[in-house]
Design a protein that fits this description.
Blueprint lengths: L1 E2 L6 E5 L3 H28 L8 H30 L1 E6 L2 E6 L5 E6 L3 E7 L2 H6 L1 E9 L4 E10 L1 H15 L4
Antiparallel strand pairs: 1-2, 2-3, 3-4, 4-5, 6-7, 7-8
Length: 171
């Protein structure tokens, strides 16, 4: 728990697991490098490479540059997705902060939560992370809030379930 600069309330940050981001980066690099190697093997394997021509070297440089740009774009997208969304628990509120340069703050009252679901893959169970889905009762319709790739998701689900019991949403 850490203290907020703006208020005297204690805020707890539900941060996505850095392990998940790193695994996605490694998987993207592996897939792209494998495709790159297969392309090089298939394309240049058709030609006799006893004599290296300038066109072969130029082709390798261009293909490698494209691969580098794609990997860089994927890493930047994963980082921006990770850094641009944050969830904080504060008393009886869930505060969602969205954006990097232009931050938007959305406050969800925990009294509006009517259902809590956790989704975990096999790897998520082994590495202790998961996605928490909160169904909020609204004035006109229900709204789902997805808190993705949260470390210790089961612990947070227990917190939300306890809050549901206090609110009278006994399942």
């Amino acid at each position: 728990m850490k203290k907020s600069e703006n208020t005297e309330q204690l805020l707890e940050h539900l941060q996505p697991s850095i392990v998940v981001i790193l695994l996605r980066i490694v998987a993207a690099m592996f897939v792209l490098d494998t495709l790159y190697a297969l392309f090089i093997f298939a394309f240049y394997g058709l030609y006799d490479l006893q004599e290296w021509h300038d066109s072969y070297i130029l082709g390798l440089v261009l293909i490698h540059t494209v691969k580098f740009v794609v990997i860089t774009a994927i890493v930047i997208k994963l980082f921006v997705d990770w850094a641009s969304r944050g969830y904080y628990l504060s008393g009886h509120q869930l505060i969602e902060k969205v954006g990097i340069l232009n931050r938007t703050e959305i406050t969800h009252e925990l009294s509006q939560v009517k259902e809590v679901v956790i989704k975990r893959s096999w790897l998520g169970r082994k590495l202790n992370y998961g996605t928490i889905i909160l169904t909020l009762a609204g004035s006109s319709a229900t709204q789902d809030v997805y808190i993705r790739d949260v470390k210790d998701a089961v612990e947070y689900k227990r917190y939300f379930d306890k809050h549901l019991q206090v609110q009278g949403w006994v399942r």
